Amino acid sequence: MRFLMMHRLDESAPEAWNPSPEFMEKMGGMIQDWSARGILITAEGVHPSEKGAIVRKPRGATPVATDGPFTEAKEVIGGFALINVDDRAQAVAYAQEYAGLFEEIEVEVRQVVEFDDLPAAQ
């Protein structure tokens, strides 16, 4: 089963966007370990919202893009990891390990919908 782990950062905290060499070493070690064990599919950080955009499409309307930064949100997605594990409990355990790399973080864990999960595929 694939799970997406998204971590949120306080966008106003400069250290959130400038990881220390020690942090990068710990993250690199985890990435190597999880990759070697077949757990990690991919993991990436993202730039602050000032370099992003949000596209909204209200019902019956044309999609509209709004450039960042997103002042209405204190916490924004700072990165993600896509993992392949046996079940939700295992995904949560890996999310706890992942969160342990950070000083303060929130990690959301969501199961990826597989083709076989769709009613039309049944």
Give structural notes.
By secondary structure, this protein is of the alpha+beta class. Helix content is 23%, strand content 32%. It contains 2 helices and 6 strands. The strands form 2 sheets. It has a 4-stranded antiparallel sheet with strand order 2-5-1-6. It has a two-stranded antiparallel sheet with strand order 3-4. The chain is flat, with a radius of gyration of 17 Å. It starts with a strand and ends in an 11-residue tail after the last strand. The model has no long low-confidence stretch (mean pLDDT 91).
Mean pLDDT over the residues: 91
Please tally the β strands and state the result: 6
Q: What characteristic shape results from the CA principal axes? A: flat
- Kindly name the structural category: alpha+beta
Give the C-alpha Rg. Answer: 17 Å
Low-confidence stretches: none
Distance between the termini: 18 Å
What is the chain-wise order of helices and strands?
EHEEEEHE
Q: Approximately what portion of the residues adopt beta-strand conformation?
A: 25-35%
Helix content: 10-25%
Describe the strand arrangement of the main beta sheet, using strand numbers. 2-5-1-6
Tally of contiguous helical segments:
2
Assembly classification = single chain
Main sheet overview: 4 strands, antiparallel
Write a brief caption for the model.
With 122 residues, the chain is of the alpha+beta class. Helix content is 23%, strand content 32%.
